[in-house]
Amino acid sequence: MMSKGRSVILLAVFFSAFFLNAYNNDFKLGYHPDEPKKVRFIETNTQDFQHPILMLQVVRAANYFADFTDKQAIAALGRTVIAAFGAATAVLCYLLSRAALR
Fold first, then answer.
1. How many CA atoms does the CB half-sphere of 81 hold within 13 Å?
2. Sign of the CA dihedral 56, 61, 67, 72?
């Protein structure tokens, strides 16, 4: 069981990492050459297995609730969802390594 102080620190790490991952994610669609293809896959529910399937599925699920149709909005949603996964990775790395480092 984690103490309240560690939980607060982990939350701070998560939100700090999320902020750093999501900061300035409003750049134009097409800056990354494969991004328009990913947006099309999210819109049409298709894929070519050259892109991470889990990433596409998670963003599709988020877009199911957000119901974005604009390509730029879908790209921004995808960037935000992936930023949350990146922030969660920092916390999960701590939680997994905590037991091994004791």
1. 18
2. negative
Domain limits of the chain? 28-100
Over the stretch 29-60, which tens digit does the pLDDT of each residue have?
Answer: 989 899 999 999 999 999 888 888 999 999 99
H-assigned helices in 23-70: 35-44, 53-66
Residue 1 reports pLDDT greater than 70:
no
Side chain identity at residue 71, one-letter code: K
Q: Is the full-model pTM beyond 0.85?
A: yes
CA atoms of 21 and 23, how far apart (whole Å): 6
**28 has pLDDT over 80:** yes
Which residue is listed with tokens 């750049």? 27
If we measure between CA atoms, which residue out of 93, 51, 98, 56 comes closest to residue 77?
56
Judge contact between 81 and 22, C-beta under 8 A.
no
Would you say 56 and 42 are in contact if contact means Cβ atoms under 8 Å apart?
Answer: yes
d(CA 30, CA 88): 26
